[in-house]
């Protein structure tokens, strides 16, 4: 990836004083190997966990914590102005508080005040600190100003503690950073900052017995791309994941489900507080009428016909009963052409039938759609609009979808 003028993107990696500082070494490696010129700006406390020599060796650039280092170059202004992206990982409770209140008592906080580029913060702290009203308020202030603050992961913390507050894995933070850089200068816009969105992903399974199920080929890649991209644009994201083996996107709360009825319950619960709901999961239309409690054995005789019943139509239900005024509902339609019409004809009919605001229509087959890193689609709007998206990474399609959603969201009060 190249920045303006073909140069390497300039990334400032701010490192807070938490035990998770050691993970920032891996984040630095991923950004550097991806072609970024990374300047590490640790806090004084961070150097108690990872030394200055380590950061300098890994980045190939000088490391400083104070505005008085190389003062003739005015680093507290220059570093922030020249950056294409500032990433803070780990962002401690103290750093979040200083950033929210405009404190500038070292090189990193001064850089945050002078940065004119996107800022991505990956918090890490104990659960009680993350959930404290002061931290909650500080995060809300930062997000309102356009800073992308990821939600921390849930897992093992320092010692025997476990809960929300764990630094997302470096791979996931790096992926969020790349998404911000891809949008280019001034293109971040945390246009979803303060918004709550729900995304479904993967493919539901309808069990026949404890071993067998009816399912589909969805890997969840498109839904996960939608969730990660929304988080990178500042949204609070809940991902309802049906049987996907993909790693959790950074800053996204994941709810795992199995069947269509499980998915319906989770999506309707989360949609109650959502500004937008994107149904990217491949939800089974039918399920077995009866589920056998033990494994069905082969007897040599032909099996009995399989009786099926319809599953609830979650997309139509969401569209007909909006949880809040102005809520935007997006559906996906994996289609194939047939004697009754082509892919778009089926898509237009489905859009009218489901009542959603947008329908992403993509043709599926052996070489398209499922289980691939790329996708092509046409996004149909209830207003009659049609937006074609050429074949490319699924993140590109996700960005187009969020562009269209953002344009339809009501203005904030």
TrEMBL record:
Role this protein plays: Catalyzes two steps in the biosynthesis of coenzyme A. In the first step cysteine is conjugated to 4'-phosphopantothenate to form 4-phosphopantothenoylcysteine, in the latter compound is decarboxylated to form 4'-phosphopantotheine. Catalyzes two sequential steps in the biosynthesis of coenzyme A. In the first step cysteine is conjugated to 4'-phosphopantothenate to form 4-phosphopantothenoylcysteine. In the second step the latter compound is decarboxylated to form 4'-phosphopantotheine.
Source organism of the structure: Vallicoccus soli
Annotated NCBIfam families: coaBC_dfp
Keyword line: Decarboxylase, Flavoprotein, FMN, Ligase, Lyase, Magnesium, Metal-binding, Multifunctional enzyme
Residues engaged in binding CTP: 285, 295, 312-315, 332, 350, 354
Cofactor stoichiometry and binding remark: Binds 1 FMN per subunit.
Cofactor(s) the protein needs: Mg(2+); FMN
Positions of region (Phosphopantothenoylcysteine decarboxylase): 1-196
Gene name per UniProt: coaBC
Protein name: Coenzyme A biosynthesis bifunctional protein CoaBC
Residues covered by region (Phosphopantothenate--cysteine ligase): 197-413
One cellular component (GO) term of this entry: phosphopantothenoylcysteine decarboxylase complex
Pathway assigned to this chain's UniProt record: Cofactor biosynthesis; coenzyme A biosynthesis; CoA from (R)-pantothenate: step 2/5; Cofactor biosynthesis; coenzyme A biosynthesis; CoA from (R)-pantothenate: step 3/5
Flavoprotein in keyword set: yes
Family assignment from sequence similarity: In the N-terminal section; belongs to the HFCD (homo-oligomeric flavin containing Cys decarboxylase) superfamily. In the C-terminal section; belongs to the PPC synthetase family.
Lineage: Bacteria, Bacillati, Actinomycetota, Actinomycetes, Motilibacterales
Any GO BP annotation: pantothenate catabolic process
GO molecular function: FMN binding; metal ion binding; phosphopantothenate--cysteine ligase activity; phosphopantothenoylcysteine decarboxylase activity
Ranges where the DNA/pantothenate metabolism flavoprotein C-terminal domain occurs: 192-407
Catalytic activity, as annotated: (R)-4'-phosphopantothenate + L-cysteine + CTP = N-[(R)-4-phosphopantothenoyl]-L-cysteine + CMP + diphosphate + H(+); N-[(R)-4-phosphopantothenoyl]-L-cysteine + H(+) = (R)-4'-phosphopantetheine + CO2
Enzyme Commission code(s) on record: 4.1.1.36, 6.3.2.5
InterPro entries in the cross-refs: CoaB-like_sf, CoaBC, DNA/pantothenate-metab_flavo_C, Flavin_trans-like, Flavoprotein
Domain Flavoprotein: 10-175
